[in-house]
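Researcher: Good morning. I'm working through a list of sequences from a screen, and I'd like to move beyond sequence-only analysis. For each chain I'm collecting a predicted structure so we can compare shapes side by side. This is the next one on the list. No need for commentary yet; just the structure.
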Amino acid sequence: MVRTEFPFAVETVDPLWITLADGTRIAATLWRPRTEGKVPVVVEMVPYRRRDGTVARDIDIHPWLAGHGVACARIDIRGSGDSDGDLADEYLPREQEDACEIIAHLAAQPWCNGNVGMTGISWGGFNALQVAARRPPALKAIITNCATDDRYADDIHYMGGALLTEQEMWSNFMLVKKAMAPDPQIVGDAWRAMWESRLAATSSLSEVWLAHQRRDDYWRQGSVCEDFSAIECAVMAVCGWEDSYSNFVPRLLKHLKGPKLGIVGPWSHAYPCRGAPGPLIGYLQEALRWWCHWLCGEDTGILDEPLYRVWVTGEERPQPFCLPDHAGSWAAEDQWPSPRIERRTLHLNAAGLANEPAPGAALSVRSPATAGRDCGRWGGYGGSCPDMPIDQRREDGMALCFDTPPLDDDLTLLGAPELDLLVTVDQPHVNLAARLCDVYPDGTSALMTYGVLNLSHRDSHEHPTPCPVGTPFRVRLKLNDFARTVPKGHRIRLALANQHWPILWPQPKLSTLAVVTGDGTIMLPVRPPSERDRDVRFEPAETAPPVPTTALDDGFDRRIVTDNVGSGVQTIALTSDHGRRRYDDRAITVSSANSDTMSIRSDDPLSAKLVTEYRWAIASGNADTEAIAVTELTSDETHFNLSWRLEARERGTLVHSASASRRIRRDFA
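Model: Good morning. Structure tokens for this chain:
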């Protein structure tokens, strides 16, 4: 629902310039309620360009809060949008230091009551946590959406010590983002010199990220899990099960000692009042209650809510797209980890999953390099993009499967399953993918959650070692948190594979993994119903009126999978054209598109190839610019082969090009 009437009229200041101590000018947009009284301010800092990148979501959210008495400042971080400087990498200490300086500056403004909050989704959720750990005096509370406390274990780079292909897709996206010109309507004639400076400094971040394949100091910096006690301000953590970052919410609830609340719904990588899938909630109303409590001292009742409000998915068959509304219902826990959750242990026997162990022969699996195709994308972003997990029966056929008997009653699971196996491998470098599926009476297999582990990292992400070939060793793996009710008559399936393409980059050789039956377990987090579940209620979703927009060209999404039976090459081609549109209130026209092509032969992991392309064009004032980036990744047995190319055009004429090729040694990845 779009709200058009608010308690306060809203004044918009764009640009608001903030000059840092080193002379760098930071550009911001400020939405401020028109009132004689002093008000708090909430800060969001991301590099995605406030004027023409995130403007649609910014206008949906920040004026709504300002209309209810909370000022909001949307900051272009150093080197992005209209701000000075160089955006050298993500989540740098310099970015956090800038944020502390900006918070102090805004807190000292005559219209501010001295209390500041920080919020954001994805990048903005990351740096809200990172800045909270620095404890700037004016920062009293944060709301972090779709973020993480651990940059190595739970971001787009590595998962379980294995390389995510999402890393290269993301670095290519950032190549373009970093290469775009500032808005001449804001910075004036300086835009061209600023653009040329950015282009000269732009290179692929994958060169940095691939140089750090272990959990080292590079990843520890900015990972607040290194010291949860550093965060003392109040924290609300929000995410959705269809997003790749949902693990961070229960982890924060477990480890933070200060005031905290968690909400996990059915959503993808989007604010819970917009995007897909639903049902959406009145997220802004919850945020307002949070801000008014911590920044204004009002008793809004927000701390009377359950500690953890969570969506439990109901019976739902797999679809390639996000459904408009997921089946399920809300549940509540007042503690996390919850003492109400039963840790039910099932044993991996030759006959399936059972309550008691039955020692038997070892069972083995040798998954082809194409295994994993139907498991969706690591970073599925919802909407019309067909990148969700589909029926897992094909995947199950390439895995080692352990099933329960049909359930006698409905079974609700909430938390992270934990796997303990005794295995043998025939190669020193092996990836393990464990999927937990809801198997319908007709055989449909719906993915509930999964986890992966580079078995060289079985004891440590800091100090990996080769797998002992031919010698049994133990593997412990925690799968991703999830919540689902499995109906009576369904079965639960654990599927083990040693390939997970294209989510994971494959190890150099196909491998055989054998599991010792009767000596392995999976712990399932079984949740009984609670009367407290009835207390979970949200207002209907609301936003402010949208930014005036004219759609000039429609976009589309598609996913095409082809098998060349002659060459044996399987190709997955993802294409998203985001269309062309004009933001009428600022006379800016934007268009963008991306494509990701992943190919591999089932019998040859070294044939893996990723080509990712992103294009973005912006016309504003006297600037009409476009950037196109292409990144390609292949590998041999010892090295990754990374190449990238960036082209920038003005009014269709090439004005800058840069490229590089790098061989980066594989370090157990």
